[in-house]
């Protein structure tokens, strides 16, 4: 019989993801042992309340509130508590004590990544985080390793499962944002504080992580332009639908040449945008995520799958654990972050995007000419997408698509439109992404 050495694993957190990681580790212990060439021993699970009711039955003797002692007795620490503190201190403590770390905590990485990676590099520890972006989807390792020799120009995707679930429900069933969010929370998709999801913070953290990896530069989350979905109304979803679009919360990370300086820089932004129904992103339903990566040599690549959920995300966590544990067996250094490019970060004011503006207007002759005049005065070129006469007599809804415009020019145009005597209201202004 083979005598396997033992690798001790300490788990911090037994919520939606942590409890599934513990279950899979315990249930598939023999299979994992053969795959790794060493035995994984789950030595403890740190939680806030050892007596709390949990969906998954975990051996009570493994539960502890003493996370500090647990990390000292672990070769690999898996952090799935979420939030910044005490997660940051515990991860730094684990690294300092000689442990490798696996985490799914994008808030921690987006806010303190450079500090954590530097600490890991200093002592030669591994810090892996496949679960931090895209749930079950392998996207971190492809960007960090597989595409490291290529030049990535753009990443466009849906990276938050909760908001995709909500927008999809609003689109397909007419559900309210609040009702759809309650279901997403029950299903374990939402963050402990769901404002992180609907406010776009979670997607912005993921965009910061993706942009840093893709462009080999450090993109702090504060450099990511962020708009959430809290302002998206049933009416906007409906008018998008009638014009052949669907509303999606998108993350976009691009390498761009700044018009003003001629210098190459990086733009990272998150906002709800209209996506044509013919675009593959429009077909991403429920809590699924999809990430398009455009690389110079590889061409366009698409990564698709479950973007949230306990067991799905546990798959990514275990993948990192197995990779690190194999290194314990075969030795040698693992991969490290490369952020040496130091590209300038371009804020949203320097970027041009396309917009769709929905106006409620008086249904009378000459309206279109007057509106076109407002756009022309502000130097924004227009491509009319749709005009529909609404149920109410003598009123019409216009959906107007602009060609690429800067945010400042667009804001001035919208303010002027709101003042126009033929415009009753500006119902919505949303960006359009994806070729029409
Ligand atoms: N849910 C998902 O679909 C995904 C989540 N993630 C990330 O994975 C991480 C975990 O998420 P999730 O499982 O949903 O989170 P949960 O809120 O469901 O679980 C958090 C767990 O951490 C424990 N915990 C929290 N604070 C402390 C503390 N101070 N001391 C000890 N234990 C603590 C909680 O203990 P107790 O049970 O006693 O309250 C709980 O078991 C987060 O970083 C999240 O962003 C990543 C991808 C997908
Ligand atoms: N709350 C997050 C969980 C996964 O990262 C999401 O909904 O995407």
Automatic annotation (TrEMBL):
The keyword NADP applies. GO terms for molecular function: homoserine dehydrogenase activity; NADP binding. NADPH binds at residue 106. Residues 356-431 form the ACT domain. L-homoserine binds at residue 191. This is Homoserine dehydrogenase. Belongs to the homoserine dehydrogenase family. It comes from the Bacteria. Its EC number is 1.1.1.3. NADP(+) binds at residues 12-19. InterPro entries: ACT-like_dom_sf, ACT_dom, Asp/hSer_DH_NAD-bd, HDH, HDH_cat, HDH_CS, NAD(P)-bd_dom_sf. SUPFAM superfamilies: ACT-like (SSF55021), Glyceraldehyde-3-phosphate dehydrogenase-like, C-terminal domain (SSF55347), NAD(P)-binding Rossmann-fold domains (SSF51735). Signal peptide: none annotated. GO terms for biological process: methionine biosynthetic process; threonine biosynthetic process. It holds the Pfam family Homoserine_dh. It is an enzyme of class 1 (oxidoreductase). It catalyses: L-homoserine + NADP(+) = L-aspartate 4-semialdehyde + NADPH + H(+); L-homoserine + NAD(+) = L-aspartate 4-semialdehyde + NADH + H(+). Pathway: Amino-acid biosynthesis; L-methionine biosynthesis via de novo pathway; L-homoserine from L-aspartate: step 3/3; Amino-acid biosynthesis; L-threonine biosynthesis; L-threonine from L-aspartate: step 3/5. The active site is at residue 206. PROSITE patterns: ACT, HOMOSER_DHGENASE. Catalyzes the conversion of L-aspartate-beta-semialdehyde (L-Asa) to L-homoserine (L-Hse), the third step in the biosynthesis of threonine and methionine from aspartate. Its cofactor is a metal cation.
């Amino acid at each position: 019989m083979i005598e396997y050495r033992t690798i001790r694993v300490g788990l911090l957190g037994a919520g939606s993801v942590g409890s599934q990681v513990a279950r899979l580790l315990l249930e598939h212990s023999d299979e994992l042992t053969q795959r790794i060439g060493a035995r994984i021993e789950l030595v403890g699970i740190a939680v806030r309340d050892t007596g709390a009711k949990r969906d998954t039955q975990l051996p009570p003797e493994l539960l502890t509130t003493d996370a500090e002692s647990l990390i000292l007795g672990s070769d690999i620490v898996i952090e799935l508590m979420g939030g910044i503190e005490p997660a940051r201190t515990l991860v730094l403590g684990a690294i300092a004590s000689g442990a490798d770390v696996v985490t799914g905590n994008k808030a921690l990485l987006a806010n303190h990544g450079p500090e954590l990676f530097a600490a890991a590099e200093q002592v030669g520890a591994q810090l892996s985080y496949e679960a931090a972006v895209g749930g079950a989807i392998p996207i971190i390792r492809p960007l960090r390793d597989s595409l490291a020799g290529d030049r990535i120009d753009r990443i466009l995707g849906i990276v938050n499962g909760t908001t995709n679930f909500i927008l999809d429900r609003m689109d397909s069933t007419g559900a309210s944002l609040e009702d759809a969010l309650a279901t997403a929370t029950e299903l374990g998709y939402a963050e402990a504080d769901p404002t992180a999801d609907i406010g776009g913070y979670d997607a912005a953290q993921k965009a910061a992580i993706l942009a840093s990896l893709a462009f080999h530069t450090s993109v702090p989350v504060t450099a990511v332009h962020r708009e959430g979905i809290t302002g998206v109304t049933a009416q906007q979803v409906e008018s998008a639908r009638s014009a052949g679009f669907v509303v999606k919360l998108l993350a976009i990370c691009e390498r761009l040449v700044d018009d003003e300086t001629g210098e190459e820089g990086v733009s990272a932004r998150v906002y709800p945008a209209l996506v044509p129904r013919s675009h593959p992103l429009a077909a991403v339903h429920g809590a699924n995520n999809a990430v398009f990566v455009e690389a110079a040599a590889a061409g366009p690549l698409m990564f698709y799958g479950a973007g949230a959920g306990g067991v799905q995300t546990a798959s990514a966590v275990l993948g990192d654990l197995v990779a690190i544990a194999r290194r314990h067996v075969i030795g040698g250094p693992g991969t490290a972050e490369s952020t040496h490019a130091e590209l300038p970060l371009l804020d949203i004011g320097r970027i041009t995007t396309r917009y769709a503006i929905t106006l409620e207007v008086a249904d009378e002759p000459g309206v279109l000419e007057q509106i076109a005049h407002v756009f022309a005065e502000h130097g924004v070129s227009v491509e009319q997408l749709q005009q529909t006469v609404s149920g109410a007599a003598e009123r019409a809804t216009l959906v107007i698509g602009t060609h690429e415009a800067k945010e400042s020019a667009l804001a001035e145009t919208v303010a002027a439109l709101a003042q126009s005597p033929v415009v009753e209201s500006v119902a919505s202004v949303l960006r359009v992404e994806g070729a029409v």
